[in-house]
Amino acid sequence: MQTKTVSPVFVGRAPERTALAEGLAEATDGRPQAVLIGGEAGVGKTRLVEEFLRQAGDAGAVTAVGACVEVGADGLPFAPVSTVLRALHRQLGEELTQAAAGFGGELARLLPELGEPSAAVRAARDVEVRGRLFELTGRLLETLAQERVLALVIEDLHWSDTSTRELLSYLFRSLQGGRVMIVTTYRSDDIHRRHPLRPFLAELDRLRTVQRLELPRFTREEVRSQLAGIRGSRPPEDLLDQVYRRSDGNAFFVEELASISDGCGSGGISDSIRDLLLVRVEALPETAQSVVRVAAKGGSKVEYGLLRAVAGLGEDELIASLRAAVGASILRAAEDGTYRFRHALVREAVDDDLLPGERSRLSRQYAQALEAEPALVPAGERAARLATFWYHAHDPAKALPAVVRAATGARCQHAYAEQLQLLERALELWDDAPAEVKRSLEVAEDAESYPLCDCGDEALSFLDMLAEMTLAARYAGEPERGLSVINRALRSLERLDHPLRAAWFWAEKSRLMRNLGRGTGWEELGTAQELLRGFDPSPVHARVLTEAALWGAVFDPGPGSLAIARRAVELAREVGDENAELNALLSRGGLLIETGRGESGVADMRGVLERVVHSDLVGVFTRSHINLQSLLQSMGRSEESLEVAEEGIELAYRYGLADTQSWLHGNRSDALFSLGRWAEAEEAALSARRSGQMPVTRTLAAQRLARLALAHGDLAAAETEIAAMREHHRPYHGAAAQYAHAAAEHQIALAAHQGRILDARRLFADVAAVGLGTGSGSYTWPMLAAAAEAESAARGVPAAAPGQPEAVAAIRAYASGIRRDYPVWVGYAALVEAELRRAEGTSRAADWAAAVAAFEEVCRPFELARMRTRWAEALLAEGERERAGDLLVQAHAVAVRLGAGPLRAETERLARRARLPLTAGGAGAAGPGEPETFGLTRRERDVLTLVAAGRSNRQIAEELFISPKTASVHVSNILAKLEVAGRGEAAALAHRLGIVSTEVATPT
Q1: Burial class, 457, CB count within 10 angstroms (exposed 0-12 / middle 13-18 / buried 19+)
Q2: How far apart are CA 867 and CA 831, in angstroms?
Q3: Is residue 78 within 8 Å of residue 177, measured between CB atoms?
Q4: pLDDT digits (tens, 9 = 90+) for 58-95
């Protein structure tokens, strides 16, 4: 007899149903939508999406459901997406096949019904095809949704694999047309602080087309309605009270308690949740209970044929048992011929109730059944499920090869996180597996120039697996795990004589050490080069030399490194390694730009970009767009840099490369800042921070935010970001100039803003003493400009006077060694020299005119406004008030538009002192809320500000463009009005009472 435990009446959820209906309406109008539904286990997520799908189907939509399965944690990538595509194929048939025409072989990785998967182009382990797979999935859905609405549901995201999450993230971002609505569910109570779904949800919260709904528990009245629907009549108050109290409004627990109360009365209610969940199972006949236990060990879903093979029952007996379990609302039959538990909580309770011996026995039986008849499960799931069954059967001889085959399958689907998890499981099994099994393993067919063993050597097979794990960790964005694997490989190689293999691992370690901010990686690279000495050229030689060229481009961009890059290109072509060749070409192009041959370098790099985009060479893409974007910005070609960024960011999302996204967003922030688009620059920097995986990318994000904070005048925020820079990366030692000089620039600027000139000097001296290469102009020249501006701002300050000539000379000497090949570098050179002359008191208007002329060749509104302000100051000193006024008006307008607080204050202060009008901001008008002035005129308050900063009468006269005698008269009047005896008392009183501006601070 079937037990009714589910209310036929849908209860509550009015706000959520409205949101889903509105989303469906938006999708119907051609605007793709996504909704994420969260809630604790049993709260009613599945019932809500079932109601949504019913309504969508009634409205004419084509619906499909897929569910993430727990085996996904063991390497079953894309399972729910494959299920959805199969459901669409069953409904649309030939129409779907036609929509996939031309790329069905590629989509067959997700939908085997389309035929045999096409062979991977080039190495099967590259991530090129992954991006193509994402793109084609999106294209297929958009094509199908041109003529109809697609309402798709993915359940149980808390069990999702990394690849599924990345594909969904791509779809949510990239679906631009077509009538598609995707609804997903997840258990919010399972999302602990380190759960991989947490950052995924945070990322999606920022997308306008994605809406999150959180299902609350039922209220008492809603529980009443649910019980009434289940019972067919209004529940007694005592039953309602009891069920509501025990269930706490959880819809599934209400159903279970209602069932028990109907059958047993109130005394049958158990205080144990597990016991409560098992009550319904224990009421089944013994044979049906046995079938339920077998089904629980089979995973989230079990095919009928597989269940029959493991249960060991006759078909009639099995069907009768299944009918009893379905009738008791424990199992439910799906359209695809599988059986699932009606709720995962029940499956978990049954599985937890199994004895250890039962678990391993059932796992072995499942594995044996699947080996005997592989067609019992879909081909795309077979390897991963077999690996899981053998692993839980505790049979290393069977489990190790099964796990390695599953890892190979994950790699072929470009699911690198799952591949890495499986290979780590293989590592766990290795020591317990028989030697003959280990010798017969084939871990990979290709491993990016690593010399794989085509032999029966157990030790070399183990190293092959570690090499494959190293690459999987790199592509999965797991550098720490990759480093751990490399160290294990190097320890193993200490006992073996295999220099080429050791050199490969040392080169990989060099890259990781750089990316993790733990040194330059030069020592590791040197070890790799030494190991290769005396051997004939090989792909490993090309790989190591290419890494050396990359190292030179970052740490020593000069003629020596350029020669290495040229040799790396030749060697890569000689051994036929396309990836190494293109990476070497990128290094050569970058070094040509750094050494003044910009057009040749850009041509090299654009040629690589064309090949990367045309052939989906993701192994090279992780550098190509980032490097060209950065170097174009360095040359002052910010608009071109942005164009490269837009293409690169789209590809990075498609390929699922989070850290590459961080680099691209960060470089985009640089270009936007230079172009005066600061709001966009800040959003790009924040995006870089959100997607950054490595210490270096998180450091660079903090640097960009520090720069913006300083430009806005938010010194507290700047301090916070500079602290984050120090936390993530050592600022000087072991860092490239592109990191160290940028870090020093912002720290020097902060010290100068806070009046700490001696600290600013020490910071510059520290970074200069390290002896780093000069780096590219976009990093070193701004650092020198910050140091020069600090000295310029401190001119005439008593505390700054000792050592100032030496400090100015040191900056000038350092600048003399920096290249000036491009207009923006020429402009910075002129800016640095003009600031140093201002610090020395010898600045002329012509110096600033030269700097402005150089910067007018590139679009740098902020730098131009700062220099025009300095030029105006120099012109006023030379008596050219009209020209100075025009420059101040221009500079002030830019400062207001950008929100550059310190620059705006400086232009307004200079205009006020010179009695020049500004078109915005006014010159000298008192604002509301101005403090008590004790009868001081505005001019006297200007003088008092400088007195408080420690200026002498002569220095005050120079800054206010008045005579020393007039300055002396102002000081005397101030002392009289404040009724103080001297300048020190006047300064102290002014600060205490807030009479003076804090714009001029005394350096310490």
Answers
A1: middle
A2: 8
A3: no
A4: 999 999 999 887 754 455 788 899 889 999 999 998 89
